[in-house]
Task: inverse folding
C-alpha cells in the first residue's frame, strides 16, 4: 500500500495550525508571530514564571543538553530583557492570527 506522505504532512500542518487558532480563542492565551529576523529569538527557548506573594521570578532557559532553572536576579533580568526584545519584533495578535490562518490555507 502506497500513501502520499506529502498530503499527510500537509494535513498534519493544517491540523496543527488549526489547533493554534483554536487555542487563541481562550481568554488567557495570546499568540503573536515573531518576525524571522529577530535575533533575540534565536538564542534558545525559555520560560518565565511569575510567582505569587512577592516570590522571585523563576526562569528556565534551554541549552542543547539541558534546561537551566534559576531565580538569580541577573539571569532573570537578562531573560526578561530578551523577552521584551522579542516582543518588539512581534506582530500584533490580530495580524499574527491572520498570518497563521493564511499559512493554514496555503497547506491545502
Result:
Amino acid at each position: 500500500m502506497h500513501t502520499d506522505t506529502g498530503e499527510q504532512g500537509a494535513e498534519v500542518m493544517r491540523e496543527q495550525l488549526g489547533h493554534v487558532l483554536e487555542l487563541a480563542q481562550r481568554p488567557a492565551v495570546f499568540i503573536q508571530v515573531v518576525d524571522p529576523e529577530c535575533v533575540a529569538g534565536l538564542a534558545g527557548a525559555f520560560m518565565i514564571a511569575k510567582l505569587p506573594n512577592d516570590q522571585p521570578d523563576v526562569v528556565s532557559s534551554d541549552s542543547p543538553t539541558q534546561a537551566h532553572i534559576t531565580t538569580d536576579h541577573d539571569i532573570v533580568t537578562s531573560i526578561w530583557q530578551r523577552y521584551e526584545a522579542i516582543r518588539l519584533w512581534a506582530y500584533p495578535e490580530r495580524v499574527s492570527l491572520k498570518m497563521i490562518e493564511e499559512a493554514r490555507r496555503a497547506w491545502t
